[in-house]
Write a structure and sequence with these properties.
single chain; 363 residues; alpha/beta; 12 strands; 21% strand; globular; binds adenosine-5'-triphosphate; binds nickel (II) ion; ATP hydrolysis activity; membrane; ABC-type nickel transporter activity; transport
Length: 363
Amino acid sequence: MSDDPLLSVSNLRTEFSTPDGPLVAVDDVSFEVGRGETVCLVGESGSGKTVTCESLTRLVPESGEIADGSVEFEGSDLTELSPSALRRIRGDRIAHVFQNPQNALDPVYSVGEQVAEAVQYHREISDEAARARARSLLDRVGIPNAAARLDDYPHEFSGGMRQRVVIAIALASDPDLLVADEPTTALDVTIETRILRLLAELQAERDMGLLFVTHDLGVVAEIADRVVVMYAGKVMERGPVENIFERPAHPYTQALLRCLPGRGGPLEPIGGSLPDLRDPPAGCRFHPRCPHARAECKSGEQPPLYDARGRTQSASCVFYDDDHDASVVRESARENGETSNGTKSVADGETSDEASDGRRERR
Ligand SMILES: Nc1ncnc2c1ncn2[C@@H]1O[C@H](COP(=O)(O)OP(=O)(O)OP(=O)(O)O)[C@@H](O)[C@H]1O
Ligand code: NI
């Protein structure tokens, strides 16, 4: 086995043609997912998380196309594979759970048949063995009395139950990589916890890589090894979860940590709104909303991903180039957290330790 990551996304660019001109939903996005690793993709609504997930196996809607970049998965570039070769990987080696899975189940087949079919899709096992495996998968995702429900049809299940069935189908092929776009958002906390545990178990058993989109920082703290922060189609920051929570480098990450739920403090919305992606601002995409923006943030290209804290954490922010003092943005994160949160700030070591301890315990 090589040391190459399981998935390596480089300079990915996905464009949609719209009546008002081209819209670049994913712009020069790069990140990796290792075997057995969980990477959480976070960012405000509309930042390009779903389109990034869809681009991996070329599942973007018809008006979209992958205009540039590569998606290396175990030695092949998925952007260049033939449709039939890609189909063999999709649903087998790489499984997806989509954000809006209303149409993911076929109304005319029982859920047992659909899970069993997914089990048998790429593997030759008897109908009986596939049915037994379907039962066990449905049981593991928290369908009560799974054996008795195998012959029920999707409409006989609630929305949350159907989502669990969709997750069971995704896991049926024992994928090497699971791409899960807010898979537990519609579920109650008990079931969410159960599914997150199941994913962690599968990772331990099978070394499965997991790319997970969520708006819940509690979930990020619980499952992530590394975090990729997106804004307006760009990667703003990447790094290990502990660093991102304890010492967020990019002002956008700092603001995002205060505006998403899951860390206990009062939520503080980010002022202003996402730019129009058909005509994004020059320079750093976040500059119109950034409390630290200076002249050089407002022109040219999005800054490169500078090393923010050693090689593992990087931020697309000029304060981390050689000519600026990054302590300006770090201090500000600390002050902001202490004055605006009744609890401790995101830049505060104590809170972050709790977050990472919680994660270790629950894993
Ligand atoms: N089919 C499409 N045609 C045109 N534009 C699209 C299409 N799908 C997505 N977009 C645009 O691409 C951008 C990124 O959308 P995306 O769904 O990836 O955001 P997201 O980060 O997943 O948001 P959310 O958190 O709400 O799910 C948005 O500006 C969106 O309007
Ligand atoms: Ni989305």
